[in-house]
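Re: the multi-chain job from yesterday

Posting the exact lines I submitted so nobody has to dig through the queue logs.
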Amino acid sequence: MDIAMPLYDRFTALDAVGPYEVLSRLPDTTVHFLGADGTGPKKTETGMLTILTERPLEDLPHPEVIVVPGGYGTRDLMRDERVLEWVREAHATSTWTTSVCTGSLLLGAAGLLDGLEATTHWSEAGALKSYGATYTARRVVEQPGGIITAAGVSSGIDMALRLAELIAGRVAAEAYQLAIEYDPQPPFDSGSLAKASQEAKDHLAARSG
Amino acid sequence: MDIAMPLYDRFTALDAVGPYEVLSRLPDTTVHFLGADGTGPKKTETGMLTILTERPLEDLPHPEVIVVPGGYGTRDLMRDERVLEWVREAHATSTWTTSVCTGSLLLGAAGLLDGLEATTHWSEAGALKSYGATYTARRVVEQPGGIITAAGVSSGIDMALRLAELIAGRVAAEAYQLAIEYDPQPPFDSGSLAKASQEAKDHLAARSG
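And the result, structure tokens for all chains:
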């Protein structure tokens, strides 16, 4: 099975690597990191981390699974008709078309979310509406047509475990969860808008501003 | 602040990228991915993912924080006296020396865990003993001397949030948890040896064998 993960400059590393760490364990499966904006090194938003891509999107027009990670760089991709056309064409034959974080905005820009429920990073909830999608604050949103969107950054791990179950069955997916020792025990309970304190939200707003 | 993360061929991607995604948000901080076995591209165990390193370990002898990710490649590093010497020297002046997964075996081989409690991936629990450490099945283990070890793969996210709290305070760390929307909701509860079903364990054992 071929899994296509488009990468681009200013992607968010965990959006891509969380699902990779789960899905690369599927039998007879290759996760392909494809250059969406040309091949070569792709840097995260901070510029501190670089993942290499050796092939362009066009090399893999018909993957069984698509995983679009998010990041600030999606803003450019959403205006790139070449990328949008690849997404449409690949989705036409894929079994699963998925996204993490603001990766869903790319699916939206390609016209794939019209009339559907979807999720994204909580800070971009409003952006989905312009693509005809209804934002829902769930962590993983499955819709008809094999479309699955995940919420912000770390939610890609949860999405990938569900996707692994859909592809290889529950026992296999549970085995991958054990392999990556995913028994989460965050030291705080601040991972969603509903749970975070006002102080934490203010801290984040001050840093982003 | 300088955070050093040694990379090497056959590392586990999420071991490195989980902590990166948290710690790169600390103010005035750079996460440096350093080539432990020479600079250049470093591939994960599957060969599907490549992270670039541009500088060798020796370029950063005195980072404030060390994060050693795990992976099959640690087996070679543990026999590389140049790498072990860097770990010892860097630890002598670091504020925090940490590991994820089998990264703790490298700390052990460098002599840093003698007489301490520590953790690692559940499958390598027995290996810590030969370094004078006592394996403990906790997800994040803090010890005197600024040493923090984390359990398998995904536990690096939890470790990094705790480390962020120690460095920048609780509100900042909670803000980073919100930024990466880390409100984990795995679809199963199979992330530890104690919780996984026998079927999941058997599945994993059959694949590893």
